[in-house]
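Data availability excerpt. The first of two example chains:
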Amino acid sequence: MLLKSTLLALAFCAFASTAQADSIHTITGDTTGAAIFNRPLEDLSGLSGIGTDVSFNQFRFTVSAPGAYSFLTTAAFDSMVFLYSPSFDPGAALTNALIGNDDLLGTTTSGFVANLDAGTSYVLVITGYEGFEYGRHSTTIGGPGAVSVVAVPEPETYALLAFGLGVVGLASRRAKALKIA
């Protein structure tokens, strides 16, 4: 395990040097039980016929300086990674897609180098190759500026919010009815 981690770290250093990494940021997550979508093909030429129901995580971020940024994802499954700007819609997985990758250093790693603009909104999507490919993952981003990640709520969070607002509305309506009576 230590040898594998060391080799991956060395590979990332070589990979990141192409982006002249001045700062490094790591994002972790787990796609187990996450929302699903029909992922794009690696070259973004269409939607996958195999990855029609793959779990995904999405991370919205900006960078503080323009330049080349390297992305390296390691996962406990056969992973793929995609970059979108300015937004990501799982129902229209090709819209706003900039770049994708599968199997950079092997089946459990993926990544790329992309030129990013400061202050522009980007979304990084980590997913599996097929529907049974999911689990924990970690993505390291290196580049000339700081990476600021903004949390993207899961669909369950929106459902809970809607339920809560409904309860508050019902309680308010009931309180008004009791005042009138």
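And the second chain:
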Amino acid sequence: MKTQVLIVGGGISGLSTAWWLAQKGVAVEVWEAAQRPGGKIRSRREAGYLTEDAAALLVNFRPQVDLLVSRLGLDQDKQRRDDSLNRYIIHNNRLTRVPMLMPALLASPLWSLPAKLRLMAEPFIPKGSHTGETVSGFIRRRLGQEILDTTMDAFISGTLASDPDLAEAQSVLPRLTALEQHYGSLTMGMFINKVIRRRQTNRADTFSFSGGMEQLVQAIASSPGITIRTGIKATTIRRQDNGWRAEGTSSSGTTHIQVPQLVLSTPADISSQLLEATDERLGKLLADIKYAPVGVLHLGIKSRNIQHKLDGTGFLVAKHNRLAINGNLWMSTLFPHRAPPEQALLTCYIGGVQRPEQLQQSDDKLTGMVLDNLRPLMKIKGEPDYVKVERHYQGLPLYHGQYRARLAQISSRLDTMPGLQLNANYIDGVSVRERIYQGQRTAQTVAASLRSGNCDCYQQQMLTPSH
């Protein structure tokens, strides 16, 4: 079957789009500049450890993700997080447990009495407009400064490598801002969703796979109906006739293809370069999207040398703590077989928008700096038996400023270029969950366009996920 869709970029965004298209009978080809698909997602087995270069787990509440995992035959390989594990943040220079239920939250030493009273008053706070509001502004307005400083700052700084003073609330907290808009209150919205409507959509299933997150990538890449060509760097794209022509280079020379539909799943700067000759304004909008550098430091330590009980998922760090790390996952507690017997695997995240210069430091200096932070927090003695550092100089896109307005402008420019779609982690979420979901949405758009174009080779084998 002749290729109908070319996807440039073989990360999770491009692969998931390809998979959803293949389920609809669409002939799809993926070009990936690297020698392996998956982008930054990579699992490594070394010295008895299983480490992740980037995404360490998948937090899911979307049925589309469940469907994809099931259809790939990965259900039996899922490793679920134990929901009884504690979550910690740094508070007063100590690891402090974050309660997950309201009664325990109100009894927690995390917040002062005024902060708890302010939290209880949340249902009576007037609804805001959200337009351009930062995360700091949104949380401060709804929950108070103390909740922002102790908890939400840690989430934004630790998981997104971002800055709550700059990140747009609607872009990085879409579910919370939607609750306010629909119900006028976060508390009342959660209550209505969970109790009165008895919806379970807010209950997240957190998991990885026995072979690590790369097992998901490999399963998608080996799915029938998807042609993946690695080692091909797209150099030029342009509109031609009723479709798009793409040219690329590889070790074997130059290649080209003409297709009715083209999807760019490359980082914003690469997409900008590819589109500059076609639409200078769109290229500029994409070029102005910034990324935070992110480093991942894995430490293998004898369990007996860690006096703090490893009874949790790890901890996050708010920027006011002024530590060298943004967060720490206790991977050997989260999932089985991540470390040799009697060893613990701690995965630390560094850099981000707060400390981009860290990635320029040597492995030894980074390791020493991180251990200086961890020793008093977790009561660690001795030296690690295993150290591994991964650097992503263009790690995570920053949803800073008037980000939704920027996406609206990008969408407006795309409307003038039929047959072209953008699907990458700078649009609608950086998580693996959202990339799979957006892949399904992109595939629906592409398939509908192919149908309306009366493409003879389109097979209407619709796969409709449950909602």
